[in-house]
Design brief:
CATH topology: Rossmann fold
Family: Belongs to the universal stress protein A family.
CATH superfamily: HUPs
Number of helices: 5
Order of helices and strands: EHEHEHEHHE
Distance between the termini: 23 Å
Protein name: Universal stress protein
Number of strands: 5
Largest sheet: 5 strands, parallel
CATH architecture: 3-Layer(aba) Sandwich
Strand content: 15-25%
Length: 134
């Protein structure tokens, strides 16, 4: 089976990547890193450049985890992550989420909410700065 990580080149994405790599290693499973974009914004800061992808590959090598990195241009990012998870029969989907204010906790981000509600596999939602033992 495979651990799938929805990765973005920011603190949330880094937290998801590190946790996903650790889960893949613990489970002796493959790791698939997905960095998707709709391509609709002139500059999508959640879509990684070549340097960001190289940094991810270096980090994964340091963590002793082999991984495939995919960067699809899609119509809908949450659907793309869910489709990839289904395609590879993922054992787990790991996503990064941002800290929410008390009011923000009432309304989870739409991307995270759709993934949590629609995924057929377990979803691990990780906040940036979460202690490693959690």
């Amino acid at each position: 089976m495979t651990v799938v990580v929805g990765w973005t080149p920011d603190a949330r994405g880094h937290a998801a990547l590190v946790r996903g790599a650790r889960e893949a290693r613990l489970r002796s499973e493959e790791l698939l890193v997905v960095n998707a974009t709709t391509g609709t914004a002139a500059v999508d800061d959640r879509y990684a450049g070549a340097d960001d992808v190289a940094d991810v590959r270096t980090l994964l090598a340091l963590l002793d985890v082999e991984a495939e990195v995919r960067q699809p241009v899609v119509r809908d990012v949450p659907d793309a992550l869910l489709d990839v998870a289904d395609e590879v029969d993922a054992s787990m989907l790991v996503i990064g989420i941002r800290h929410r204010s008390p009011v923000g906790k009432f309304l989870l981000g739409s991307t995270a909410q759709r993934i949590l509600l629609d995924a057929r596999c377990p979803v691990l939602a990780v906040k940036a700065g979460e202690p490693p033992g959690r």
